[in-house]
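Hi R.,

Here's the chain you asked about this morning:
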Amino acid sequence: MSRSMRLVVLGSALLLAQLGIPAHAQSPAQWQSEQIAASDKSERIMREANKHRGLLAQYQVMRYAYAADKQPAFRLIFGQYLSWYQTFIGDYPDAAASFSIRQAPLKDDYPSPLTDPRWHARPALEAIPELASKYQLVYLNEAHNIPLTRTLTVQLLGKLRQEGFDYFAVETIYQTDTKLQSRGYPTSKSGFYTEEPISAEMVRTALKLGFKVLGYEALSDATGDAREAEQARNIYNSVFKKDPHARLVVEAGYAHVQKSGGFLGGSSMAEHLFKLSRINGLSVEQTMLIPHPVKSDDHPDYSAIIEQLHPTTPIVFVDDAGKPWSLRPGYDVSVVFPPQKMRRGRPTWLSIGDLRQPFFVSGDRCEHHYPCMVEARYANEGPDAIPADRMVLDPVPLNATINDRVRQGQGAPIGELYLRPGRYNLTIDNENDDQIFAQKIDVPAEDKGSPKPGQP
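And here is the predicted structure, written out as tokens:
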């Protein structure tokens, strides 16, 4: 992680403190000082973790460090670091628990769509492309440690390509990966969040659809408004300056995509890009109306919508004229994600709208080397590719500490990878990143994921 990214993490944490996270210091200045110290410590831990070979060993270092320090400032800052690595290894429930942003109602929230009969719910996958057809630029945001918020983007890319969009700018992509477009898939050198399989699938999907994929992160150590402005310049110079008629999809984290209102003491990336291009984009908000590990952290409007409508796919609200509803100013449309359902310890939204299906894996193949990492890579991609999916099998909880690791005759753990129909190279590695099992597998379209003889 670059120094600029570390400072962004700290800036985000300070913003969260302003939004209502209780300060445990004697004064705001001391609380900020504790967070800066926690950020420095978090960075040292991650550097130490990254000296280890393999994601699983790196995660082990980080989770034990998290368990060893109960200080509130450290938990706030390092919980975000830990959650990223939990998504990288496919442990999505723990990632959400390690870093969760409570969605409290704000004074400028628009009235709930349930209170006005003109609003009616529509599947987001249908409504958003229709809205986008009238724009040259579309913004889609995500919560970096909640890959649920990437799943709709993966599904939207094909429909947006059909509408004529031809560029896809992704916040996490490193501009140094000059081979990404020709290679056709992301590697560990392609970006930071693309280490997570859904993020990698998003980039891989865009490449397969023929999008010109590019990164735009600030290359300097700028933070706050200066970073937002640099991101906007990078997008403008890479796309609209060269191709004024380009149709662009921008993927970013959180409020980088808000089109109005203050952001970290200045303006957002989207606001800066408008100043440069004079192009008004469609801003799609995907991080607020989502399920949280603790229901009391859900926005009240989310809870009411779920209770009344029981959606099973992401929805948005529009009126009869096609005007969309958003929760807050600065965004054009808000996406409501359905509640999370679990199957064999993994969330079923990993199916990405039924594009993928569960593939059963038994821990017997780990040969008692626990925890073990199970990965499936597309057979036509190299061994350096980010897997289509990965998970860790362990008889004890993944967030257990060293003192918790006592096994008393449990059977082999089981789990399910979520994969598109096709051929894959499946591998299982131990904690030291040594391969202990490898097999080519085929996922037929009709397979529903139930255990069958001969499956790994």
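One quick note: The chain is about 35% helix and 15% strand.

Cheers,
M.
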